[in-house]
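Now for a sample.
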Amino acid sequence: MGKKIRVGLLFGGRSGEHEVSIASALSVLGALDKSRYDVTLIAIDKEGRWLLPDTKALLAQADDPIHAKIADTKSPIGLVPYQNVKQMVAVDGGDAKVPHVDVILPILHGTFGEDGTIQGLLEMASIPYVGSGVLGSALGMDKEVSRKLLQAAGIQTVPTLCLRKHEYSRDAKSCEQRILAEFAFPFFVKPANAGSSVGVHKVKSREQLTPALNDAFAFDLKILVEKGVDARELEVSVLGNDEVRTSVVGEVIPHHEFYSYEAKYLDENGSSFAIPAQNLPGAISDKIRSWAELAFRTLQCRGMSRVDFFLDRKTGELFLNEINTIPGFTKISMYPKMWEASGLPYSELLDELIRLALDNFEQRKSLKTTYEKRS
């Protein structure tokens, strides 16, 4: 048995998906092969403080991870990247020793985790990390920009209107009239930079519009208004760096009106899954996998992504809904479940993600950062 790889499992974060991140991290912690990895938990609380949490206290909450709280045994520590030792170092909380890690596995969903910010910090520290880099993370997170790039690549997305908070604050009535002129009920309102259906509303009447807009703007400075499509919700997992592979196609069957936050995480009977998706024509399955790979490359992703699609029940049209560069990793999350159905078990999937992170780091490390004038 060779030397163990030291993995920093980074989770929590300052986003509306904080609790989802804890649930995912607990699942990942349980699945990592302890004979191969030494795992250090590094938590970020809702105020943005970095903590070395009490592992036992966290595991004690594993039966209800979506309501788990981060418990720390030491004072909060301020961490900064220190490139000379390729490590995060404590600048306060002096009694806290931050163990050295070989690779970071960020299980941070949403803002300040999935949007390129934490990736930039880790780049500054020269620490290998799992998943997409700064650009891929930022593009995947911003649904307005990503859809423009996907459309340019020939991938169809749902008709959408982008609205900025300053526009709405200046003239709410005009903005709402514009929405009502462009979209028939029902339609969806969602933050442009969020996940796990946080701040998403299905608007079925004029009376529901203003509250939906105000709630979505509570999570982002720009929001999307999206045509309502009576559709099957299909998903596929993508894995790789330069060489990319896709899983079988799965289907989410919401038991709520749509696949809301509550349906995903709070209601045990909120949804069911079909993996692989049933009664799906082979041509549609092939198109989903092809578009998912094209989207992964177009948006400069690496490591992992889950790509979500709508298949219109009436017209048969296929739309790419969004790409998730740090998909959920709970025991019921679609990303690992689709890989399991494709023959790649959860623990082996984590092995592969860590390998991909280390391989990418070695490739990037070989690049020159100093210009040498040729004679």
Summary: The radius of gyration is 21 Å. The mean pLDDT is 88. The first strand starts at residue 5 and ends at 12. The chain is about 35% helix and 25% strand.
